[in-house]
Amino acid sequence: MDQPLPQLRTSEEAVARIAYFSSDVVLSVQETLSAQSGYSAQLHHLESTKAKSQLAHIDHTPEIQTIRQNADPLLSVHQPARAGKLVSITTTSSTLLSSIPHLYKIANYPVVLHVSMQPAEFPDYAEITSIRQTGLIMLQSETLQEAQDIAIAAHALAIRTGKGVLHFFPGSTGPSSPIHEENDELLARLLDQARIRSIRAHGVPSSGLYSDDGYKPQTNDLQLPVGSVPSTPAPTSGGLSGILSSFTSGAPSSASSDTLQSGNSARQSESSNSTLDSATVERAVTSDDIYKHAEDIFEIIRRFTLRQYNIFEYTGPRNATTALFVFGSTTALFRHTVERAPVGEVYGGVGIISARVYRPWFGTRLSEALPKSITKVAVLEQIKRKTTRWGPLFLDLLTCLKGEPSSGLSRVVVGHQLGYIDGRTIQQALRGVVQNLNAPNPVQNLQVGSLDAPEIAATSVTQPEAETAYMRILADLFKSRLHVANQLGKDNAGVSPTISASPEYGFGSLIARQERREAFIQQVETAIKGRPFATDVPLQWLSKWLLVANDAEKSAAAANAVILRLSVDGSSLARELLRNTDLFYKESQWLVGSDAWSYDLGNSGVHHVLASGKNVNMLIIDSQPYSEKSAADAERRKKDIGLYAMNFGNAFVASVAVYSSYTQVLHAMLEADKFDGPSVILAYLPYSKEEDSPLTILQETKKAVDIGYWPLYRWDPFGEEKGELNFKLDSERIKTELKAFLDRDNHLSELVRRHPRFAANLSSSYGTEVRHQQKRKAKDSYSKLLEGLSGPPLTILFASDGGNAENLSKRLARRGKERGLKTMVLAMDDYPIEDIATEENLVLISATAGQGEFPQNGRGFWEALKGSTDLDLSGVNFSVFALGDSHYWPRKEDRAYYNKPGKDLDKRLADLNGSRMVEIGLGNDQDPDGYQTAYSTWEPQLWKFLGVDNVEGLPDEPAPITNEDIKVNSNFLRGTILEGLADESTGAISAADAQLTKFHGTYMQDDRDIRDERKAQGLEPAYSFMIRCRLPGGVATPKQWIQMDDISNAFGNTTMKLTTRQTFQFHGVLKRNLKNSMRAINKSLMDTLAACGDVNRNVMCSSLPENSAFHREVYNYSTSISKHLLPSTSAYHEIWIQDEHEKKVKVAGDALADFEPLYGPTYLPRKFKITICIPPHNDTDVYAHDVGLIAIKAADGSLEGFNVLVGGGMGVTHNNKKTYPRTGSMFGFISKDKVHLACEKIMLVQRDNGDRKNRKHARLKYTIDDMGVEVYKAKVEELLGHRFEAPREFTLTANVDSFGWIKDEAGLNHFTMFIENGRIEDTPAFQMKTGLRELAKILTGEFRLTGNQHLIVSNVSDEKLPEVKDLLQKYRLDNLQFSGLRLSSAACVAFPTCGLAMAESERYLPKLIDKLESTLEEAGLRHDSIVMRMTGCPNGCARPWLAEVGFVGKAFGAYNMYLGGGYHGQRLNKLYRSSIKEDEILDLLKPLFKRYALERRDGERFGDFVIRVGVIKPTTEGKKFHEDVAEEESEDEE
């Protein structure tokens, strides 16, 4: 077989591979997380391919930990090293000096450091000589091939000696001639597996932070009894043959073997190598042991590769009289040049020496490597800045070469400082060295080469892009007053970026700056007394300024006046003061750093700031994700700077997180600026890589804040003196250490007294132990209940997301009890896995989530079951029933996802020796009766196996409780809502009440970003409520806008959502805040009644900015229709609206019975939606609603009436072809005075004929198709008392908004602004919410919310126009420089709050558009409107089925893609591809957009184009939505 071509081109690549294959843990040190090191590409490649290491584990894959260079990387060595793991570090020389404290400690563990000397063009070897006394073994390589070989030697030597080894080599400046990958046989031969097992067996238990626990590497010497004779001759000391014989036999030498033991203990153990009584005595590993092992390893390498390595290496004639000992990156260049010296050249015949093993220093062995003829040695040390007269290597050689007794010679040793040398200057350098060496009086410390010649790329310290969020806030808050002393990128007069970014440097800079301003103030005071100005005018202004010089705001105002007066004074002193105008302003002075300051190495600078008491603000950004807080190293601990500063007692301290509470960040920074003393703001910004998306950072932040890992708080040690709390908790939970501090200072009790709701949270402990106890309690409680039953046991475990698997399990348990079985039913994650082997009969029922994944309440169980190595289920009978959809993942390669959790469970239980009661049942949603088809066969077989199949007298099955039951028994929407709100033991309400509260305008949700984490901590989901306002027509006053903003800040998550139904929506409202939120909404003259639920919901109306009079007339009908169809129940006011004295209102008992004249006690079968559009605008998607009204203008310009569309609707169920979207059918024209009655009668026909048994078939669109359009229309006309007239002509041109300014017929101005996906929030980059609030304060017109989630600032007079425009510009609210695609996009909320979401939507669509816009730009389509919509599930809140390009979430990260919708909302699109991910989406859309740009006709829209050219077929009506799709979902199943 031909040998593969060489692949490795850099030393770092070769070394990385050796480190990976020879280690349990590899610490990959990088300058930043986004900038790969020379090693990281190879490491990540090996990790991604799951390459196995050469260590003594079967299928062992090393763990790769990526650590930033400034985050004290070697701190992560100690814990795994103590645990007996083999650890290697890949880093550069810039890490070494700051890590010296660690190097001393890890020198006694088999740790290998691979160090690339930097900068590669001309590294400073002083970084090696400076650590020569740390106790590390140090090996040096020079070339690419040597780096590979010596890397192997380094690991072998660390394993054999038990000591730390540092391998250093010149950094690569570019690709070299490639070499082959490492020799696997050589690597396997040198990695002594017996020694590896010994190292792992002698892990060091310790609770300390560092690995230096008094342990030293040990070796065992065999001691034979006096007079005994060994069975085999013992090898002679230092004899290579003995070492080799023991090595090749696969065991350590019988004379000595090394172990890791305490330096103060000597334990004896029996030897199995002899039948004689003998003992081993332990002793410390010596340099002689290291020498022997190194020589042995080099010999093995020679045998395999024919490449020779020695402790000291000499090349040159054996009769040479002069030699050069080179210590630097150009050793190989010196060798190469001397070997090729021309005849007669002065340096011809010179020997070259280098140290392959630099430490320990084997000085006595050097003379053995040198020819006896050498009398003069030049030492060339590549050290840039000499700190002593004599170089370290010079002194080493001087002690071992000068005056050796054995040689009888006195060699001359001459030191040289080696500078930058390359191929152009090497000959000149050699001549200079040799000439100096041969001179009668050689010059010591002669410089050879240039110390500053090469052009080395400057290493710059840059702030990660993610962290600029906090810098933007600082800049926005303090503007010109802001001064960051250690600002990156500043010119600091030759100071290195690393030093200038440190807290010590920044603190010194600030002190100097403060002293300069104090001197300036003193200068002004002196000037006032001396009156040296041309006039007295500056004096009075300077006096005023002096009084407020240390007040930031007042001094700034006074400074402007002072500078103006000084500028016209003209005196010399005035000119002198004006040269320092910046000192008139009191700066907001900051030091900005990272969590690297929290480790040992950076903490001293922080200490100086705190101890000084100076008025210095520190912003310390912590980027460690919560999910990684202990994954890499449980012992790796950063100091808690917050607690550290609080214990000083003189510092303001705040803990903030911009992705949790932007407002709290603002408060903290402003308070820090005003605090007279040190301030520390700990700012959370978790990311694994600098390019992590804001969504990833948001999710990590939410986990950390919610669970208490990163509490939000502010601490002012002098707060009580101001009549305030010292400690202000801004989040729900605080961590244990902070709680202990507050307990100590007696502040916790005060906090609990003032905020009782925090008490339980503050004292709770979280963790896996809590969760375990909950499982045990649930199981034991069930067992106790079953004690009295006599039948055989049956344990049923379920994993369920949507409820089907749970309901099926509970029904099975109920039926089992009726048959006399002792049944227990639990969620899989609520079951203690350690009990599974004790079960007799076990049934597992699992749904399928996402991409073949377990539902959330089964994932922990599966991971435990899958990972168990000691379970034996030979006594357990089991059966599995799985629920899935064979069409959910249509592509052949994805077939494995169908019912995968159930199949995995079945196989794993069988592998653990369980016995199947019944073969696995595979429920399939595509079967005629869904999963019931397979289940109806599976369940009887189960009863037969258990012997209970022929039980007589079984009771009738109780009918399942339906939404209809809940409504009819609710007492007109009351239910037990009040009791649920009063229950403080949970943040939730009952399932039935959760259905009823929808009618009141609120949905119960939980934060899905942190659902798993809370479950792991033993907590219930983070329940909260979404509140939706009823706002007919979407018109709000400026006062109402401010009130909505207040509600979102006080009770919600500080954001607002403008919905696709033209109203406000709040998220994150806690149960305890529901009443106050509802009352506040009602005080704003809005309400939430019927915003959701099975009633007529918010009535929409086109925004029409260009014709305000007509808009107002049509808008009035939207409000009148809404009011006419409003439910009549008084429950809403009884539950939510109370008087100011909180007087209780009865909701039952003595209350009068309610009456619903339109709805009756069961209300409607499903939701009912009405919209009005005003041609030519279809911005409300008139075809998509149960009733769509098209406003028709009379000849005089007034409203004549409406064309009526009936039967539109969007909701669909994936892969259920019985469900489909539908556009409305035209009924005809109705006059404006009867339109409310027409809407009523259409609703009543639906009320009486809609499907109340199957909610998936309950919308009006199915009723009208079941009855027929004409039949339905006839019933409406019968109730109405007259027929619809023929529809009037109309034209619709688009269903998107028109952006920018427009003037209406009355001369008023309107501005339509772009609000991406309707989310109103403040971010560091864009303070939209603040800007809109400021706008509402000055606006005299109104706000109009559009059906596309945007906002119109309406009715602005010409007089008010400049002020409004200035404010819009100030907050960048007038920015419309977006692509046509982005302006025409819309998305629903989806994750994290929507319980129905299967995929991201609002948080993802902007990122997808980002990746498409470059293609649009190239194709010339940047300004072309293409309607793109996305939803996280098929319920269709953003009306994706009408978009030209629609995406509907199928699973996390996967979407169905639809094409061909009509541009003005008249035509449904059709499925183009199913279950595709981002890469496929981009691969499909980019060529389509390019083709559209090239082949479209004039005025042709994208949706029409893809139909014309045959990419997709048109959908002519809803019932044909699933026909002729571009990608038919396959029927076959593997």
Give the helix/strand layout:
Blueprint (H helix, E strand, L loop, with lengths): L10 H11 L3 E6 L9 H9 L14 E6 L9 H5 L4 E6 L7 H7 L5 E6 L8 H4 L7 E4 L3 H18 L3 E6 L13 H7 L2 H9 L13 E9 L16 H9 L7 E7 L16 E6 L2 H19 L6 E4 L6 E6 L3 H9 L11 E5 L1 E3 L3 H7 L6 E6 L10 H10 L10 E7 L7 H13 L7 E3 L19 H11 L3 E3 L12 H4 L2 H28 L6 H11 L4 H18 L2 H7 L9 E7 L8 H10 L4 E6 L18 H8 L3 E6 L4 H13 L4 E6 L9 H14 L5 E3 L11 E3 L6 H9 L3 H7 L4 H5 L4 H18 L7 E7 L4 H15 L3 E6 L13 E6 L12 H9 L9 E8 L15 H12 L3 E2 L4 E4 L7 H14 L17 H6 L8 H6 L8 H6 L5 E5 L4 H6 L6 E6 L6 E2 L1 H14 L4 E3 L5 E6 L4 H10 L16 E2 L6 H17 L6 H6 L33 E4 L13 E7 L5 E8 L18 E7 L3 H15 ...
Parallel strand pairs: 1-2, 1-3, 3-4, 4-6, 5-6, 11-12, 11-14, 14-15, 15-16, 17-18, 18-19, 19-21, 20-21, 24-25, 24-26, 26-27, 27-28, 27-29, 35-36, 36-37, 47-48, 48-49
Antiparallel strand pairs: 5-13, 7-8, 7-9, 10-12, 20-22, 22-23, 30-31, 31-34, 32-45, 33-34, 33-42, 37-38, 38-39, 40-41, 41-46, 43-44, 45-46, 49-50, 50-51
Major sheet: arrangement of strands: 2-1-3-4-6-5-13
Shape: globular
Number of DSSP E strands:
51
User: What's the pLDDT, averaged over the residues?
Assistant: 86
Please compute the radius of gyration using only Cα atoms: 39 Å
Low-pLDDT regions: 222-278, 630-636, 746-769, 1144-1152, 1529-1534
Report the sheet-strand fraction.
15-25%
C-alpha end-to-end distance: 39 Å
- Note the main sheet: 7 strands, mixed
- Report the structural category: alpha/beta
Secondary structure tally, helices? 49
**In percent, how helical is the residue content?**
25-40%
